[in-house]
């Protein structure tokens, strides 16, 4: 059974959430920044199989080199021309015991992806949408509000209305009303 743990839940530094996904394939979704993620991984598992990046803003990839070195793993992301990305993601990626669809969702950053497992109705949303129906910033380089709105719409059209869990890049994961959270983010982005 796939288990998801946010290793950055108690971190007070500027970082993203860092999700350790265990099961058949142990994967770190994003590495965070400005804290010792290696010791947090070491405390829970003996090894990692891969790192999957939702996008390459510094708060999500600041610990990439430390994780690569400590665990001898490679990283997967949307754009392999970027230093933090070793390999390009395909149409799907295995996290834990589940197969996740890779959905390109630019607007916050050009290389942003969301990961969605139709079988378990779980989504890693990166910085596209957040708890409470907020959405990712578009005032940074590569940000674009219209593109972000289209990406939120694509996510809403892809995920099941019974979405079980929405794991976001910052703040708490959403396990109650996750689909409505995506809908509210789309509405808020249009205002």
UniProtKB/TrEMBL annotation:
Molecular function in Gene Ontology: hydrolase activity; metal ion binding
Alphabetized InterPro entries for the sequence: MBL_Glyoxalase_II (IPR051453), Metallo-B-lactamas (IPR001279), RibonucZ/Hydroxyglut_hydro (IPR036866)
Domain Metallo-beta-lactamase positions: 15-170
UniProt entry tagged with the keyword Ribosomal protein: no
Transferase listed as a keyword: no
Alphabetical UniProt keywords: Hydrolase, Metal-binding, Zinc
Entry cofactors: Zn(2+)
Leader sequence segment: none
Domain of life, source organism: Archaea
Protein name per its UniProtKB record: MBL fold metallo-hydrolase
Upper classification of the organism: Archaea, Methanobacteriati, Methanobacteriota, Stenosarchaea group, Halobacteria
